[in-house]
Design goal:
Blueprint lengths: L6 H9 L3 H9 L2 H12 L2 H17 L10 H14 L13 H10 L14 H16 L5 H12 L4 H7 L4 H22 L14 H6 L9 H4 L2 E2 L1 H4 L21 E2 L3 H11 L5 H5 L1
Length: 281
């Protein structure tokens, strides 16, 4: 593969079934797809499964990409549509809301539980719980609102690109994003002592979280994942404007490298007869 190919040429070669071009193209978006899936669905296993579905859709629909938008915008549109309608994740059958989550935080710090941390470093467990809790908090938003928040706050898409992905005007997108960010910030202010001024501290909830199976000391997805700079994941010419000055509340919006299983999925696909699906699409 010619390393001097531009994105348009890379897409053309990948769509024709060139293995190296396809690998480079999908490799450039797999972290973006995984992080959107993780924030939309709430857990690493569900995000891995959904990411594989989305990457397969991208690979088998490359020939339908008409280059009327950027490639990353096109991928975001496929991913957002897939995730908004995704029904196989853990929270699909039991959606959360802010009232329920707030009540759980108020009642979830019993002091008479035994030490369940299994000799795992408590600071590490507290960090894992913090990342998990804030990600689960996003599940209190309906799917479309969640996607709006993630695209604007985490990926910092400008309102024109994000509105195009979600089929709404830039103005409507900005208004929705502003309301959602304020709602999230208000909740953090009321309850969270890590990112807001609430009384809840992750270190005080470890045993409760382990007892209720929200934290497994032997499976630390967030703290074992490699954090990456969002700028290396996807870059847009125009980043989302600062619409409300609430950025400090949302420092939990970190990005991670795709898990090994997602990377292996791509490698396996490229080595299998399924590659013909791209050529024949």
């Amino acid at each position: 593969m010619n390393k001097n190919l531009n994105v348009s040429e890379l897409i053309d070669m990948a769509a024709s079934g060139d293995k190296e071009s396809l690998e480079a193209l999908i490799g450039s978006i797999q972290d973006m797809v995984f992080n959107l899936s993780l924030r939309m669905l709430g857990t690493f296993p569900d995000a891995e499964d959904a990411s594989q579905d989305i990457l397969l859709k991208v690979m088998t629909h490359l020939s339908s990409f008409k280059k009327e938008s950027s490639f990353s915008t096109w991928v975001f549109r496929i991913a957002a549509n897939h995730l908004i309608n995704y029904k196989k994740h853990m929270f699909a059958q039991g959606p959360l809301n802010f009232e329920f989550y707030g009540n759980d935080i108020r009642s979830g710090m019993p002091r008479d539980l035994p030490d369940l941390t299994q000799d795992v470093d408590k600071e590490l467990l507290a960090e894992e719980l913090k990342m998990s809790c804030t990600n689960v908090m996003l599940q209190c938003l309906d799917m479309e609102s969640r996607c709006i928040f993630i695209l604007g706050t985490m990926f910092k898409l400008d309102s024109t690109a994000a509105g195009s992905i979600l089929n709404m005007t830039p103005e409507a997108y900005r208004q929705r994003l502003s309301r959602i960010r304020r709602k999230m910030a208000d909740f953090l202010t009321a309850y969270c002592g890590e990112y807001g001024s609430g009384t809840c501290r992750c270190a005080n909830r470890l045993n409760y979280a382990i007892q209720s199976r929200r934290l497994n000391p032997q499976v630390l997805d967030y703290t074992s994942a490699k954090e990456i700079d969002p700028e290396t994941t996807v870059s847009f010419k125009n980043a989302m404007e600062d619409i409300d000055g609430l950025a400090s509340y949302f420092a939990f919006c970190r990005m991670y490298e795709s898990p090994e299983r997602t990377k292996q999925f791509l490698s396996s696909f490229l080595e299998s007869p399924s590659l013909s699906l791209v050529k024949n699409a």
